[in-house]
Specification:
Proton glutamate symport protein, two-stranded antiparallel sheet, two-stranded antiparallel ribbon, mainly alpha, about 425 residues
Length: about 425
């Protein structure tokens, strides 16, 4: 990451080396890595969920774990939104010298392009979420990476496979387990190239955006980072300590490779293979729990996204001089919580969600132009928080299921065992 940042800072979009442009080279390295990770996402998610359903125990165990997973994800997302709400109200980045900052900030030149990318989208898109739950064509859903439909099918498939007795059921269960193990082996080969992929992704991003783009919106940028930092390094470690009775520092060490990949790729789905590897092999969570909890979390649990949507909406409202009553802020909190779950499968997800919130409180969609300059860098940060939230959920839920090996082995002992 550091080398990628240095390379990007020393490179312009027109820079060439030995007559070859460097930026397309950075893009190629990063794209190959992300494409390789995305290649294994569909078989990994489907086989992991089916395998998790088979191994989760009886119906009571399945219902208990499912209920705890949903409650945990909703609870942490709500906490994240409330953290964002408090921080943005204390700092008030949309108000400069007592005046709304709309005119001082101006709208991003990319506003028209961003609006075009979400044209025709809005609250009505949530009906599409319900349709995606039961896709008419599984192969099309897989090709379009509509993970909600694949997850629902995998849950059904795993539930009924675990009840299938006799030789057919046993053979099919072994086949699913074999596909899962092979997919994980492929994933581990891909992960060996993570340093190169991260270098390319960071170098390309810094080359295009630079760091000067942050200056006009520095206070908003700092506000979001502070809120994300409080949730990631304050709230979530506290939950690990209180409910899992384990060291949050140890878990952070275990998740470091996945968090760096999430930051550089800005994709929870692309990071999922590495997240599962870190949670199982480095944090000691069983495959039974992680295979059920993490794929669901990568699709529906978006703590960082929910927090960002709340901060962005209130920042824009402040910049427009809007009266932010308790009722208005409650609407923003509720809408941010729901949209962070609902728009995960929609293209331009965060822009759609923020547009929905702005429309709900009566602000124009064009107002998203105020935040576009910093969106890419903040997207990287909130994705890391999303992945961290999923992994913390896996640790806490595993401990609630009585797993004693979670975060028991030190990183030094793990490295010794591998050697």
């Amino acid at each position: 990451m550091v080398l990628g940042g240095i390379a990007g800072a020393l490179t312009e979009e027109s820079t060439r080396l030995l007559g070859l442009p460097l930026l397309p080279g950075y893009d190629l390295i990063g794209d190959l890595f992300i494409n390789a990770l995305k290649m294994v996402v569909v078989p990994l998610i489907t086989t992991a969920i089916i395998s998790g359903m088979i191994n989760v125990g009886d119906g009571d165990d399945l219902g208990r774990l499912g209920l705890k997973t949903v409650v945990f994800y909703l609870g942490t997302s709500l906490i994240a939104v409330l953290v964002g709400l408090v921080v943005v109200n204390l700092i008030a980045p949309g108000v400069i010298d007592g005046q709304p900052a709309r005119e001082l900030l101006g709208l991003s030149a990319d506003t028209d392009r961003a609006l075009a990318s979400i044209e025709g989208r809005g609250a009505g898109d949530f009906t599409e979420i319900l349709r995606q739950l039961l896709p008419p064509n599984l192969f099309q859903a897989a090709a379009e990476t509509q993970m909600l439909g694949l997850i629902v099918f995998s849950l059904f498939f795993g539930f009924f496979l675990r009840t299938l007795s006799g030789a057919p059921g046993e053979h099919l269960r072994q086949t699913v387990e074999g596909i899962y193990q092979v997919t994980m082996s492929i994933t581990m080969v891909i992960i060996r190239f993570a340093p190169l992929g991260v270098f390319g992704l960071i170098a390309a991003t810094v080359t295009r955006t630079g760091l000067d783009a942050v200056e006009p919106l520095a206070l908003f940028f700092v506000t979001v980072l502070l809120a994300l930092g409080i949730h990631m390094f304050g709230v979530m470690p506290l939950l690990i300590r209180l409910f899992a009775k384990r060291s949050p520092v140890r878990h952070l060490q275990a998740m470091a490779p996945a968090l760096m990949t999430a930051f550089s790729s800005a994709s929870s789905a692309a990071t999922l293979p590495l997240s599962m590897e870190c949670v199982q092999k480095r944090s000691g969570v069983s495959k039974r729990t992680s295979s059920f909890v993490l794929p669901l979390g990568a699709t529906v649990n978006m703590d960082g996204t929910a927090l960002y949507e709340c901060v962005a909406a209130i920042f824009i409202a402040q910049a427009y001089g809007m009266d932010l009553s308790l009722t208005t802020q409650f609407v923003i909190v509720l809408t941010a919580l729901l949209t962070s779950i609902g728009v995960a499968s929609i293209p331009a997800a965060s822009l759609v969600a923020i547009t929905v919130i702005l429309g709900t409180i009566g602000l124009p969609a064009e107002a998203i132009g105020l935040i576009l300059v910093t969106d890419r860098l903040l997207d990287m940060c909130r994705t890391a928080v999303n992945v961290w939230g999923d992994s913390v959920g896996a640790v806490i839920l595993a401990r609630s299921e009585g797993e004693e090996d979670v975060l028991r082995t030190s990183m030094e002992e793990l490295e010794t065992e591998r050697a």
